[in-house]
Amino acid sequence: MTISRREFLPVAGAALLSGVAGFQGGRRRSAKPAGSSAVAVVKAASYSNDLVNRMLAGIRECKLDVRGMKVLLKPNLVEFDPATCINTNVAVIAAALEAFQTLGAAEVRIGEGPGHRRDTYALAEMARYRSEIPKFDSLFVDLNRDDVSPVQGFADRGEIYLPNTALRADLIVSLAKMKTHHWAGATLSMKNYFGLVPGAVYGWPKNELHHVGIDRSIVELSRIFRRSFAIVDGIIGMEGNGPIQGTPKPVGVLVMGSDLPSVDATCCRIMGIDPSRVEYLKMASDRLGITEDARIEQRGERIQSVRTNFNLIPQFHQIRLA
Amino acid sequence: MALHGHPEADRAWTLLKSWQMANGAWRPSGDVQIAGWGTALCVTLATVRGEFGGPLEQGVKWLLESAGVESNFINRAAARVGLLNAERDLSLKGWPWKPGTSSWVEPTAHTLVALQRTASKAPKGTSADELKERVRMGEAQLLDVRCADGGWNYGSRAALGVDLPSYPETTALALIGLQGHPDLAHSIELAARMARETPSAMAAAWLAIALRVHGAEPPAPSGDVSPDVLVTAVEALGAPAGNYAFLKAGGAA
What we know:
The complex is a heterodimer.
Chain A: H1 5-12, H2 14-25, E1 37-43, H3 51-61, E2 70-75, H4 90-102, E3 107-112, H5 120-126, H6 129-132, H7 136-139, E4 140-142, E5 148-152, E6 159-163, H8 164-167, E7 171-181, E8 185-187, H9 199-202, H10 207-212, H11 214-224, E9 228-239, E10 247-257, H12 260-271, H13 279-284, E11 296-300, H14 303-306
Parallel strand pairs in A: 1-11, 2-3, 2-7, 3-4, 7-9
Antiparallel strand pairs in A: 1-10, 5-6, 7-8, 9-10
Helix pairs in contact in A: 3-4
Chain B: H1 7-18, H2 38-48, H3 54-65, H4 73-80, H5 105-117, H6 128-144, E1 158-159, E2 162-163, H7 168-177, H8 185-197, H9 201-213, H10 229-238
Helix pairs in contact in B: 2-3, 2-5, 5-6, 5-7, 7-8, 7-9, 8-9, 9-10
């Protein structure tokens, strides 16, 4: 009998435990967040709804002030397959662009470093970003090939090189897609930051992050980019064998907030996933943000009114929310 | 490489030489202190320029000492005794994007070209047999991860038991790395189809090079101008009068 890599993880993972313990108790431990976090859940039945006003309402619920800021919108642009919905929908990006300009940001740019495909502009063309976002080429930065600077402290690697466009932004908006993920359980606003890691240094895919550990890398990147806001495109998500080969799952929501673990925990509950069983959210909980239901101030729609269980691959049946 | 023979290329080579590290590897840019996958391209470029001195030898030596780290010890042991389906042969070693990570199609393909171009100029302390064996294993690694459709994804043929689709750009690169290997007819046929159908200018440019080095004629380019200078460079390399022959495996030394 053979077992898959995932089934083998509980056995093989023993070697990683000391490293994870090091992260949890190490010098980079963040201050424990106090109080509560606001997360807005806004209904949007389709991409042709008035997304700008819905987004503005959600952002205002979260009391985000972006006046004078340099804002970087970070969509999830990974791969293109016309049969499914891998990427953040172009309508969500266009709406975010207009919303942050309306709110008085000094500059709004779009940046992404796709982890699979080398030709970022072709991918942006296929995903209709270039044709439907005015002046896309002048607003867009391919983070895979941006100038980089070292950032000290990334898991056990000592340092990581990250794109200057992201490091110099006053605020990064994680425009993630609500999807299942065959290695991490779910990919949401935190996992979306894999696209901030430059391919020119780390390759396609960014295999360094897999060797560090996917969950640990998700948490480390979210720790480095704390000046963040999340808008998760859950209008149509992806279930099953995500993040590439899954199937579309209409949910009809945008989920927003400044506390990325809170946003992702809320998304998980909407997807019928128990966030306390998602490894990276367990690691981030109380170190980077709040994930307990009782401490998240839910604004807008109630979770129960929009919850729709996402199909999970067998390897992740154990994370189903009761 | 696309501009070889122009004064601009000489200036660029001077800059590139300043990025070579003490261990022989090249950094991806002046700001980054990581040995990287670009080493293979710099070695190939050195052969194009006929610079067979110390920097090239050190680069080749670094490439020969570099190899992908396939999973971890426990998984490798489990795969060896049949307890783990790793979906690739973990005993085969290609080349990684950076040291300490796994083998992937693109760095492996570029390294195979570089090593084969230096085959008759093995660096001091390295035997031609060692070089040949490393090339043989790199080729075997690439063939091991060929997708069910005959092309290549970026380095895996399946994930969790589900076949992955091949990508046009990595299919092109794998074919460039596997020049001279038998059993590629189906893959070349697929590459020709991809060249006709891909919406990616970069993929089309790499496919043109792959088809030309395998003796096939690619379709005429679209004529669109890409906003990406890298795409323009690869297109120039793969043009009928371009320098694609520099990527022919046995084309130097």
